[in-house]
Design a protein that fits this description.
With 401 residues, the protein is an alpha/beta fold. The longest helix has 31 residues, at 310-340. It is built from 14 helices and eleven strands.
Amino acid sequence: MSTFLRILIFAPFLLLAGCSSLERKAAVPSQEMGQAQIAGLSGVRYMVASQSSIDQMAKDIQLMQLSRNNAQITTPANYLSLSGGGDDGAYGAGLLIGWSERGDRPNFNLVTGISTGALIAPFAFMGKEYDPVLRHVYTQIGPKDIFIERGFISGILGDGLSDTTPLYRLISQFVDEPFLKKLAYEYSVNGRWLLIGTTNLDAGVPVVWNMGKIASIGSPESLELFRKIMLASASIPGAFSPVMFDFEVAGKNFQEMHVDGGAMTQVFLYPSALSQSAKDLKIQLQKERNAYIVRNARLDPEWRETERGTLSIVQRAISSLIQTQGMGDLYRIYHTAQLDGVSFNLAYIGSDFKFPHKTEFDTDYMKALFDYGHQQGLGGKEWQSYPPGYKRSFDELQPKK
């Protein structure tokens, strides 16, 4: 039984158990969210629903350019966005490694990741040296390396049906102090950005974390925060426990509850309002900019006869909603790219991939999907210049000559 279906089955019990929820510190008050900071780690995130936060992101870009005194506007800029998708992240991992072996994978100026994309993003950011890590994570692990199922009662009375301590250990195995030092160098010296998205469940807003800035702080606390952000971005609400972050406001202690970034968006590039903020600050950007979007999912509708039952109907409806949300994200990114003069390049799991998917993090399935993506990368994947269905719709709207 899938984790998603188990959540639906247990939902009524979870509601009844709400009165016995676990203790936590008070959430950051809504009117003070802009002032909340992690002790010793201030200014490391952006509330992208807030214009002031987007302006701060633009100021950080400006400050980095001024400190390096080299905007490098004559060389192309390449951006990589890695979507959510659970164990379908094996596709993106395989594609990137095949691309490396082909020999023309660029050194990305910006890498963004959400959910399973957040687990890939730091290693994709660091380049082909870390391809063996991606290969191991997406071809050698199984469910026991990701979560521990809680018992029926403890799952209902806890904050998630599964404990993700194994996933945190897996992250910690590869994200250590030397790794962060290398990543901090790329951010501070080479001006490259790594962004990971989570969902602030208290506020119901997306949060983007500046992982390079966190790494450059270089403290034990920054290493722990880096790992926790990766874990939070992949923490499916209800299935996995949320990640709690301690914040301070005017000397008072609060907590924020963060879960899978996919609760807000399936893939992101950068806030659409960022370009105007950059123009206002007269920031010079590269003339040639290319965005590569990897959607770790199929985009064609999956036909499946739905049983006439409440749980089956709800499960099917929500899975369709998630797929549609992902498509909408691609349209939004494409529109932003068009306005900003950024080339749009999209890769996703095609309808030609057919392999049985028996359970989450099924190793055999992940190996097959990894090989599928690897062959695409190795063979020179023909990236799509439009989201599916967009080109036809666009062409039909053009006046006939």
